[in-house]
Design a protein that fits this description.
Chain lengths: 294, 403
């Protein structure tokens, strides 16, 4: 299909901007109403105010839920990423049918509805005589984010030259030292990505948390759902929502920056070149070094 | 940056400016023992596949030893068993008399230069070379001194702070060498280390590697499928085919006295002719090529009688004007000519039915014209250049076939 005709190009532009509006309008609404003076989020706007932020952060139940969710997401992300490294190492060591089977089992939570997992987990927790706890939420989140960790880490691990590990062992490193000094640093960009994806997924998760979080200790999504029926809380919720969007944007920018930094470190483009080498000279001196006979 | 543009003359000048003696100070003796390797009944199975089949091999200390064979012949598996990356199914790897076949690679006084170099991309050249020393717990100032020496040895003294990604292929190859040599291993294993480089750099590094080996005196075990490379560099070569050693000998012996048709065919171009050994003749044997043509052959299995192969190198065939009479001469017709620069390669259809390849030195402008296709010639096959090879059949297909 040709898109270069005037009509095609215009159509494409309209489609693109419609898509952008559809995607970002809810976020924009949230940002706008977070600084709106009126306690009811309706137009016309009634003036600029930051009071909802102050109120949100003086609401102990709200901040408690927020901190709880952040803590759970952090632990789940670190745990799942660590498990993801181990699973990827194991999966790549397997061959043939065993590898396919193991991968399928590990990725299964991707297609199981969270609500089913949540019910199952609740029954399991009660069967072993325990009460719903935040630990159970963390474990439940680990199960559902582990597939994401594996899907991010395994391709990166597969792309590493296996001879690199052999070289490390050949030079006297134990298998564990080879993992620590060679494999993990080279996996770093994937580990950062995995951590962020797992964190966001866990932070956002509702079903498992609503079943397994003890009453009185809601995670943030559970708190939001409960408070949606309390109109008085809405402006505070909107304010926190705006903060989370800002935080997410910051996270994305930091992650991209981190990824670029890590890749520069691998290729070594910056600061490592001798200052006196400029223009044609580096190439010439390299050619010299290649041609010198020992 | 992978293709440094260096002319032959510039090379010679650099060579003259940096004579061998400059590096004499960093020559070193091997760390442990003398570096003498013996493979005893070494066998490796991968499932139903026999990759290496009861290999017995003596690799003398301090020499440049090549394992040469087509891809999939088991040479790399053999090397990996010496390095410790594969555990033999059975058999021994004796290093100075001690079996190391089950010692982990990190505990063997053996280091490897990998085909892909396997440099650590996140570490500077210095840290790459220092990796092994630090693992061994060598003191900081000693690490600095020895890494400096090793980088000087491979002419990369100014490159310590670079990352591997900033180096050309040839430079990366040197870093890999320095990283392995800095540990003063008893044996250095090299797995086709020049495979990824262009032809010109390759030839240059072949010479360098050989000089480096002589200088450091460490046993080099070099895996290659390139027969020219093996002939250029090695003190001894083991020709491997289908997991077995076909012949282990000096380059000259392999070329001049191949034990069988595989070796004759794999090392350079050979003319292999089906024939029958009929009886004694002069200092050798009488060989019948066809009903009307027989040859006297002085070398190889001259005591053998029956169907066999007769082999002669292209450069040993004498091309004479048609009608030249005499002993061991067969008339032929030039069917094809390939201009090789320093010589011409002629394909000649012999009257006996065989097709042979002959090399004629390029002596001047009229050489090509003199041997154009269709020219009738007489081929002189000297008895001392002909060998009888009994038994072992020639390999099927090209030397690079297989897995």
């Amino acid at each position: 299909m040709r898109l270069t005709s005037r009509f095609g190009a215009a159509g494409l532009a309209i489609y693109f901007w419609a898509f952008v509006v559809f995607l970002f309008a809810p976020l924009a609404v949230l940002l706008i109403f977070s600084v709106n003076k009126s306690p009811v989020p309706t137009l016309p706007l009634s003036g600029f105010s930051t009071k909802w932020f102050h109120e949100a952060f003086s609401n102990g139940v709200l901040t408690g839920a927020l901190v709880r969710s952040i803590a759970i997401a952090l632990v789940a992300a670190v745990l799942a990423t660590a498990l993801g490294i181990m699973a990827s190492l194991g999966l790549l060591a397997l061959r043939g049918r065993a590898a396919a089977l193991a991968l399928t089992v590990l990725l299964l939570p991707l297609v199981v509805p969270y609500i089913c997992l949540a019910v199952g987990l609740l029954i399991l927790v009660q069967q072993i005589g325990a009460q719903p706890t935040l630990v159970a939420v963390v474990l439940g989140h680990c199960v559902i984010v582990l597939p994401f960790a594996i899907l991010v880490i395994m391709p990166r691990l597969r792309s590493l030259d296996p001879a690199m590990n052999e070289a490390a062992e050949d030079l006297g490193a134990s298998p564990l030292a080879a993992l620590r000094l060679i494999t993990l640093p080279l996996l770093a960009p994937a580990l950062v990505s995995s951590g962020i994806i797992c964190f966001v997924t866990s932070f956002d998760e509702f079903a498992i948390a609503s079943f397994l979080a003890p009453s009185g200790q809601p995670t943030y999504p559970v708190f939001l759902y409960a408070s949606a029926r309390t109109p008085a809380l809405l402006p505070e919720v909107i304010a926190v929502g705006a903060l989370i969007i800002a935080g997410s944007l910051l996270l994305v920018v930091l992650a991209e920056g981190g990824r670029r930094w890590a890749e520069r470190r691998l290729v070594g483009e910056t600061a490592t070149q001798a200052p006196d080498l400029g223009g044609e000279q580096p190439r010439a001196s390299m050619a010299m070094a290649d041609s010198r006979l020992t | 940056m992978t293709n440094p543009d260096v002319t032959g003359t510039a090379l010679d000048q650099v060579d003259a400016e940096h004579p061998q003696e400059q590096n004499a100070g960093v020559s070193r003796a091997p760390r442990t023992g003398s570096g003498q390797l013996s493979l005893v009944g070494l066998t490796k199975h991968f499932g139903p596949v026999v990759a290496v089949d009861k290999v017995d091999l003596e690799i003398p200390a301090g020499g440049f030893f090549s394992l040469l064979g087509p891809s999939g012949c088991g040479k790399t598996t053999t090397l990996r068993m010496i390095a410790g990356f594969e555990t033999p199914t059975s058999g021994q790897v004796l290093l100075d008399g001690q079996d190391i076949a089950r010692t982990p690679p990190s505990k063997r006084p053996v280091n490897t230069v990998f085909q892909s170099y396997a440099l650590f991309p996140h570490l500077r050249v210095f840290d790459n070379v220092a990796f092994g020393l630090r693992r061994a717990g060598v003191a900081k100032h000693e690490v600095r001194r020895r890494v400096g020496e090793a980088l000087e040895l491979v002419q990369l003294a100014g490159y310590a702070t670079r990352k591997p990604g900033q180096l050309s292929g040839g430079q990366q190859q040197r870093v890999a060498l320095a990283r392995a040599l800095v540990l003063k291993p008893a044996v250095l294993l090299l797995d086709e280390p020049l495979g990824a480089l262009d032809a010109k750099l390759r030839r240059q590094l072949q010479v360098e590697l050989k000089q480096l080996q002589t200088q450091v005196g460490i046993t080099f075990v070099y895996v290659t499928h390139d027969q020219e490379e093996a002939l250029t560099m090695s003190d001894r070569i083991a020709v491997i085919n289908e997991g077995r050693i076909e012949q282990a000998a000096s380059p000259q012996d392999l070329y001049e006295e191949p034990a069988n048709a595989f070796v004759a065919d794999f090392l350079g171009v050979s003319n292999l002719m089906d024939a029958a050994v009929t009886g004694p003749s002069g200092a050798g044997a009488q060989v019948r090529l066809s009903d009307s043509f027989s040859l006297e052959v002085h070398r190889g299995d001259v005591g053998f009688r029956g169907p066999a192969k007769v082999v002669i190198r292209p450069e040993r065939i004498g091309i004479e004007p048609a009608g030249t009479a005499g002993h061991n001469r067969i008339p032929g017709l030039v069917s094809n000519v390939v201009y090789l620069g320093s010589s011409l390669q002629l394909a000649i259809q012999l009257a006996s039915g065989h097709v042979v390849t002959a090399l004629v030195p390029n002596s001047g402008e009229d050489t090509a014209a003199a041997w154009s296709p269709g020219t009738s010639v007489s081929c002189y096959l000297p008895p001392s250049a002909l060998r009888i090879l009994a038994g072992k059949a020639a390999p099927d297909g090209s030397p690079d076939g297989g897995g």
